[in-house]
Specification:
Elements (H helix, E strand, L loop, with lengths): L2 H4 L7 E6 L2 E6 L10 H16 L5 E6 L4 E3 L4 H4 L7 H16 L5 E5 L2 E3 L1 H6 L4 E5 L3 E3 L11 H10 L2 H8 L2 E3 H6 L5 E3 L4 H13 L3 H36 L1 H24 L2
Parallel strand pairs: 2-3, 3-5, 4-6, 5-7, 6-8, 7-10
Antiparallel strand pairs: 1-2, 8-9
Helix pairs in contact: 2-4, 4-10, 6-7
Length: 272
C-alpha cells in the first residue's frame, strides 16, 4: 500500500447522520483514537460548508466514535516521514478545516466523548459550546510527541493567559473539571448523556434568530482574526524548522516502537 492510498479518504472515517434538523458528524477512526488525517480534515471541511448552505440543517454536532476518544489529534503515522517542505500543504488543509468550523454560521456543538488532544482539542474550542463527561481529558500534548506547540498554546492563551505555557510545555491533559473551571468545557454530564445533552444544546441555540446568530458569530471571528492568522503562520514556520532537523520524525518513530514493544509484550504475556 502506498503512502497516498493509506491516507486517502475513506467514507467511513467521517459518519454523517441527520437527526431532525441537527447534523451529527462523527469522527470514526477508532483504531487510531479518532486521529486526523489530511483527507479527513478535507471531508469535514466539505461537510460543514455544505451544511452551512443547507436550509434543512439548523445546527450541527461534532463528536467521536466509541468511548475512548473524541479526537486524539494528528495521525502521527501520516506525518512521520514528512520534511519541512511538506508542512505547507498540511497547514493549508488544517487552516481550511478550522476556518470551516469557525465560520459555520449555525450552532455547532462539540460532544466530547473521550480524549481530545492536540488539534483534536483545538477544534473543540472553535465550536460554540462544548459538552463532555466527567472522565474525559483534554489538552495540548504536542510537545510530548516531539511536535512544536505553537498554535494550541496561543489558543489556550486567549482564554487563560500565561498558564497556557505550563499546560503546553508539560504536554499535560486536563481532567474535565479543571477544563470546565478554565472555560474549555461548558457542561459536564454523565458518560451516556453526552450526545443527548449536545442535542439539547443544539436545538436550544437553533431557536435563536438565525440571521442575528450568524452575524454575531462572524463578528466574533473577526475579533481574533489577525491573532489567529498570525498564530497559524508562526506554527507553520515552527513545524518547518522542526521537521527540517529530523527531530520530530525520530520522536514519532520512537513512539511507534514503544507501542509495538508494549503490544508484543502483552501478546507474549497472554501466551504464558
Amino acid at each position: 500500500m502506498t503512502k497516498e492510498s493509506k491516507f486517502a479518504h475513506d467514507p467511513g472515517d467521517l459518519l454523517s447522520e441527520k437527526r431532525d434538523s441537527v447534523l451529527v458528524l462523527t469522527i470514526n477512526r477508532q483504531k487510531s483514537y479518532n486521529s486526523w488525517t489530511g483527507a479527513l480534515r478535507e471531508e469535514l471541511t466539505r461537510k460543514l460548508r455544505a451544511a452551512d448552505q443547507d436550509a434543512s440543517v439548523d445546527a450541527a454536532i461534532l463528536t467521536g466514535a466509541g468511548n475512548r476518544a473524541f479526537c486524539s489529534g494528528q495521525d502521527l503515522s501520516e506525518i512521520g516521514k514528512f520534511n519541512g517542505a511538506d508542512m505547507e500543504a498540511g497547514f493549508e488543509r488544517l487552516t481550511a478545516c478550522y476556518d470551516a468550523v469557525r465560520q459555520f454560521g449555525k450552532p455547532l456543538v462539540a460532544a466530547v466523548n473521550g480524549i481530545a488532544a492536540g488539534s483534536g482539542f483545538q477544534v473543540t474550542q472553535f465550536c460554540d459550546y462544548v459538552v463532555a463527561h466527567e472522565e474525559v481529558k483534554l489538552g495540548q500534548t504536542e510537545v510530548s510527541s516531539g511536535l512544536p506547540s505553537v498554535f494550541g498554546t496561543w489558543l489556550m492563551w486567549e482564554r487563560i493567559g500565561s498558564r497556557a505555557f505550563e499546560l503546553a510545555l508539560q504536554g499535560r491533559l486536563m481532567d474535565a473539571e479543571e477544563a470546565k473551571q478554565l472555560g474549555f468545557i461548558n457542561e459536564i454530564v454523565g458518560q451516556t448523556k453526552v450526545i443527548d445533552a449536545a442535542m439539547d444544546v443544539a436545538r436550544r441555540l437553533a431557536k435563536q434568530p438565525r440571521l442575528a446568530y450568524k452575524i454575531s458569530k462572524a463578528a466574533n471571528c473577526q475579533f481574533t482574526q489577525e491573532r489567529y492568522s498570525s498564530a497559524m503562520n508562526m506554527a507553520l514556520i515552527a513545524f518547518r524548522e522542526a521537521f527540517d532537523t529530523g527531530a520530530p520524525q525520530k520522536e514519532i518513530d520512537q513512539f511507534f516502537e514503544r507501542r509495538r514493544t508494549r503490544k508484543d509484550t502483552s501478546v507474549g504475556n497472554s501466551r504464558t
